[in-house]
């Protein structure tokens, strides 16, 4: 079905000092674009249909009200109550999921309550289409103004309300844009073209209906969305995307498992990606825009199971080559983005247990390992013994010969034997019961005010353990080679993540992200 987003808001003009009657302003969008022709009824009174900007307005009296929206086969009644001189803002969002109910948000603003803030942004151009630097954009009869940068872009932050904009620049005619309504926490785009000062126009351009057409103003409302659908819609190449909402719905523990759900992508050994049948030699992987090296010296591709989904904000899989990619990225590119500061306080705790029929609860190979191996850390069992580094030139060379021949490079057999017995020599292999696979993750974050600005943080930790057992394999072939082979592997992955950010101005942010990755494979093999 069609997605219909309806925003209704009542705002007092910043310019007026008298109490105004409540007004109802409605803006109707579909797929983030204004939708005209939607019928709006207020208390069974027909307000008409939305105009080309998707808006309709009406006065609002004190009492209970019912607004009904009608478009094609959709009819939605909304009940609310308003007090005297109270502004009301209603937002209704329909989703494309069959059977899902629309999301309805109703906000009320008293005349005496402080107004929210929004901003107007856009470009100032001259008649040739070039950017005008240093132009002044001001809200008429207020102290709010902004100046364009070298690209002709301006950002004017004002309280919510209706304004007339005045645009001026040296050597160019002053222009005005009337009736620009600014909603709370919403950006309005206004692009203005200025004509040269003193230009005589003998035959002015004529618009529809014979009216003189002197200037053209483009005013629009934008609502940027950073979700998977928007990334795929506006990508310039064939791209699949997974956002944080989809990752939470999937319930996958790491990126390797999540990419199995993307068409044209397959995962080998739970961690190596293949895009359109091409392996890691033709695929690049980036983390927050930076190219990642492989942790395996024998392979080029990145082990994707290193990254738990609790730290991931989105994944883009580009399946076609573009000029901004490396020459070795002919197969595709996997772009990973980690999370920044959250929009609100968040606390997430999750855990899982997995059963492996070939290993869990059965006897698997084991050895006299370090006490910290369960967490992927050595408790000192495998440390280099004292004196070995000094006798071997920091582990680079050990020559066993008679010191009388070369006292600098030669190590006597007796001294070499003394060094050798210092190493761990317990190679006993036995059996132990394999534990279930398990994972636990914790995430916490918050956003806090800092004067007129905001700062926030996001912290996450993840522990994942898996056990695999190859079992007892026997070899018996016509060449007479007979043997057996057993191997067990215990993998432990620990991830720590922290993001700290500070947001200021209309759209400025300073953000720091830190990732700690620790992955070990504890392997016992007998052959």
Gist of the model:
By secondary structure, this protein is mostly beta strands. The protein is built from 5 helices and 35 strands. The chain is elongated, with a radius of gyration of 33 Å.
Report on the architecture of this protein.
The chain is mainly β and 527 residues long. The protein is built from five helices and 35 strands. The protein has helices at 228-234, 244-250, 255-258, 388-391, 413-420, and strands spanning 4-9, 23-30, 33-34, 39-42, 45-49, 55-59, 63-71, 74-82, 86-93, 103-110, 117-126, 136-139, 145-147, 153-159, 161-169, 172-182, 187-194, 217-222, 239-243, 265-268, 272-275, 283-287, 290-291, 312-318, 332-338, 346-354, 363-367, 399-400, 410-411, 429-433, 437-450, 453-469, 473-476, 482-504, 508-526. The strands form nine sheets. Strands 1, 2, 3, 6, 9 and 10 form a six-stranded antiparallel sheet that branches. Strands 26, 31, 32, 33, 34 and 35 form a six-stranded antiparallel sheet that branches. β12 and β13 form a beta hairpin. It is elongated, with a radius of gyration of 33 Å. 24% of the residues are buried. The model is unreliable at 1-20 and 201-213 (pLDDT under 50).
Distance between the termini: 62 Å
The number of helices is 5
Residue-averaged pLDDT, rounded? Answer: 81
Would you count the extended β strands for me? Answer: 35
The global form is elongated
User: Rg from C-alpha positions?
Assistant: 33 Å
Give a short account of the largest sheet.
6 strands, antiparallel
What percentage of amino acids are in beta strands? Answer: over 45%
* Helical content class: under 10%
Poorly predicted sequence stretches spanning 5 or more consecutive residues: 1-20, 201-213
Instruction: Please state the structural category.
Output: mainly beta
């Amino acid at each position: 079905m069609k997605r219909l987003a309806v925003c209704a808001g009542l705002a007092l003009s910043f310019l007026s000092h008298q109490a105004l009657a409540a007004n109802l302003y409605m803006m109707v969008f579909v797929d983030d674009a204004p939708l005209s022709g939607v019928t709006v009824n207020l208390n069974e009174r027909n307000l008409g249909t939305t105009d080309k900007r998707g808006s309709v307005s009406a006065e609002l009296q004190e009492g209970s009200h019912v607004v009904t929206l009608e478009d094609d086969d959709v009819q939605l009644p909304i009940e609310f109550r308003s007090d005297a001189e109270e502004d009301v803002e209603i937002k209704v969002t329909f989703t494309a999921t069959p059977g899902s109910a629309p999301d309805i948000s109703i906000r009320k603003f008293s005349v005496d309550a402080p107004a929210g803030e929004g901003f107007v942004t856009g470009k100032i151009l001259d008649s040739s289409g070039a950017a005008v630097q240093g132009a002044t954009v001001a809200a008429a009869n207020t102290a709010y103004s902004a100046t364009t940068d070298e690209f002709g872009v301006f950002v004017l932050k004002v309280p919510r309300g209706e304004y007339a904009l005045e645009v001026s620049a040296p050597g160019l005619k002053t222009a005005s844009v009337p009736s620009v309504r600014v909603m709370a926490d919403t950006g309005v785009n206004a692009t203005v073209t200025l004509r040269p000062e003193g230009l005589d126009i003998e035959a002015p351009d004529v618009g529809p209906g014979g009216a003189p057409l002197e200037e053209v103003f483009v005013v629009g409302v934008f609502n940027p969305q950073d979700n998977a659908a928007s990334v795929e819609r506006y990508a310039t190449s064939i791209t699949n995307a997974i956002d944080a909402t989809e990752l939470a719905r999937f319930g996958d523990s790491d990126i390797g498992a999540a990419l199995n759900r993307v068409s044209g992508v397959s995962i080998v050994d739970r961690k190596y990606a293949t895009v359109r049948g091409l392996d890691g030699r033709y695929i690049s992987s980036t983390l927050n825009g930076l190219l990642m090296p492989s942790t395996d010296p024998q392979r080029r591709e990145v082990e994707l199971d290193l990254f738990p989904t609790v730290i991931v904000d989105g994944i883009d899989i580009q399946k076609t080559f573009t000029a901004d990619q490396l020459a070795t990225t002919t197969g595709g590119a996997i772009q990973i983005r980690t999370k920044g500061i959250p929009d609100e306080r968040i606390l997430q705790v999750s855990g899982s247990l997995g059963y492996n029929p070939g290993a869990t609860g059965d006897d698997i190979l084991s050895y006299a390992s370090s006490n910290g191996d369960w967490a992927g850390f050595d408790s000192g069992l495998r440390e280099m013994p004292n004196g070995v580094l000094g006798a071997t030139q920091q582990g680079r060379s050990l020559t066993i010969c008679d010191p009388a021949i070369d006292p600098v490079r030669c190590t006597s057999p007796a001294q070499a034997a003394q060094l050798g017995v210092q190493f761990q020599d317990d190679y006993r292999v036995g059996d132990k019961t394999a534990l279930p696979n398990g994972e636990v993750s914790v995430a916490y974050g918050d956003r806090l005010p800092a004067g007129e600005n905001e700062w926030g943080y996001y912290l996450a930790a993840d522990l994942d353990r898996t056990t695999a057992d190859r079992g007892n394999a026997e070899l018996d072939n016509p060449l007479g080679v007979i043997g057996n082979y057993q191997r067990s592997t215990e993998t432990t992955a620990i991830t720590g993540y922290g993001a700290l950010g500070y947001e200021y101005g209309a759209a400025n942010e300073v953000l720091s992200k830190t990732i700690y990755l620790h992955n070990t494979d504890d392997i016992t093999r007998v052959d």
